[in-house]
TrEMBL record:
Residues 1-26 form the signal peptide. The keyword Signal applies. It comes from the Eukaryota. This is FBX21 protein. The keyword Ligase does not apply.
Amino acid sequence: MPHINAAAALQISMLLFALPAQYFIAQWYGADSAERSQTTERLIIASWSTSTRSFLSPAAWADRLKLWLSKMRTCLYLELLILHFRNWYYGENKIKSGDNEANPHSYFAESTHVHSPKPEHIKFCVGQVIIHRRFGYSGVIVGWDVKANTPEEQLQPRYPPVKQDLKDTPHYRILINKANGFGKSTAYVPEEEITVIMGLEVYHPDMETYFSGYDGSKYIMQPWLKKLYPHD
């Protein structure tokens, strides 16, 4: 079988197109002006009829709306599946991984052990919205430690000699409100540096992982987080 290159294929296509084109030209120019006017009128009427059926017909728009709603429902269902998977992966799956305090991810109030009983000297709760007293950013508490739980090499530069006592005070993990434009997305701070406020909502990409809603005073924990902090 002979090989047909691109140039040959183009020539064949032009020859095939020439036949109907030649017929149309012959029909158009072989007729008198009255016949050409009638042909033009028929073409215009046919185009208008097609456009009317496509764009001015309520039935056509109803079909388009049904198709659009179907696609929206599909997208919403996929988003819900993704959210459910994220909550499971970061929540229940994290708990099932075990209560291993030697795990490096147990630093900065990310331990997976159940925080019970809750010591009376810990003032704040998971889900409360706070403002940092020195830096002014807002955020929401997602975890706490009875005292600073950070790698040893970070304790010394973080707490100079005059602030050594802060190491033994409660520390909180914070999701920083994106509306502040602070740059960092999380913080780990001692209790004396934050104060609780109400009526302020926090915007952060991980909010739905930790919380299911906001009641005006604090955020409602997801079930997996409530298991870790049953008294908050």
